[in-house]
Design brief:
The structure holds two protein chains of two kinds.
Chain A: E1 3-8, H1 10-16, E2 19-23, H2 30-40, E3 52-55, E4 58-60, E5 71-75
Parallel strand pairs in A: 1-5
Antiparallel strand pairs in A: 1-2, 3-4, 3-5
Chain B: E1 3-6, H1 12-19, E2 26-33, E3 44-51, H2 53-70, E4 75-81, E5 83-86, E6 90-98, H3 101-118, E7 121-127, E8 132-135
Parallel strand pairs in B: 1-4
Antiparallel strand pairs in B: 2-6, 3-5, 3-7, 4-6, 7-8
Helix pairs in contact in B: 2-3
Classes of the chains: A alpha+beta, B alpha+beta.
């Protein structure tokens, strides 16, 4: 059962906290992590379309599998500059 | 050349010094500055920025790499500030030095546009009435 480090930003950070460790089932994907978070915090639903994921500092799809020790980042639409 | 996320005031002159070289005949510095009015006209007290710092630095270096591919003589630096900023403070500095002005202007324009689209940085507008809103760049992509 892999333990991953979740990091979230902007409104998602306000809803979820800025970082924490999460235990997932073997073979879990980034999308599975997102679904688990939505069950815990239903207000995430409205951000599903705009949120991108990164695994260990690289953008990834919801289908990407997670491994022990991965950092999974939740990235809402950017606003820099 | 500097690619960084910082918490303190951005020293634009120091960034310019880092890119300037004897080969350069022009230097273009773009600074994004906190302004008093939001796009919808509301009065802004200040901004709060946050970033995925590792990915943001990597995105700055990737932008510079793209600039080098088409304009190899350009020397580029990108620095973005995070934390709480007041009206008039510099949030981002993009500095491009080149042998001639055309490349310096083009590189600076490309870099700030690319940063707004691709760099994982977020901005919260804090209004004088106390409300706070996370503001998206219009060009920021959605999940494919």
């Amino acid at each position: 059962m892999p333990v991953v480090r979740l990091v979230a930003f902007a409104r998602l950070r306000e809803l979820l906290g800025d970082r924490r460790d999460i235990v997932l089932a073997d073979g879990a994907s980034v999308g599975d992590l997102w679904e688990a978070l939505v069950r815990e915090e239903p207000r995430l639903t409205e951000f599903a379309r705009g949120t991108r994921f990164a695994r260990n500092n690289r953008l990834c799809s919801a289908e990407a599998l997670v491994c022990e020790g991965d950092e999974i980042a939740l990235l809402p639409p950017f606003g820099g500059g | 050349m500097i690619f960084d996320i910082v918490r303190e005031a951005i020293d634009v002159r120091a960034i310019e010094a880092s890119v300037l070289a004897p080969s350069c005949g022009g230097i273009v510095s773009f600074c994004g500055v906190v302004r008093k009015r939001a796009d919808d006209g509301r009065e802004v007290e200040g901004l709060h920025y946050e970033a995925h710092e590792g990915m943001a630095r990597a995105s700055f270096m990737a932008i510079a790499e793209e600039v080098r591919a088409t304009m190899p003589e350009v020397r580029l630096a990108i620095v973005h500030r995070v934390g709480a900023l007041s009206i008039g403070e510099v949030a981002v500095a993009v500095v491009a030095a080149a042998p001639h002005r055309a490349e310096a202007f083009a590189a600076a324009r490309f870099a700030i546009d690319a940063l707004k689209e691709r760099s994982p940085i977020w901005k919260q507008e804090r209004y004088c009435d106390g409300e706070r809103v996370w503001v998206e760049n219009r060009c920021s992509g959605e999940r494919q």
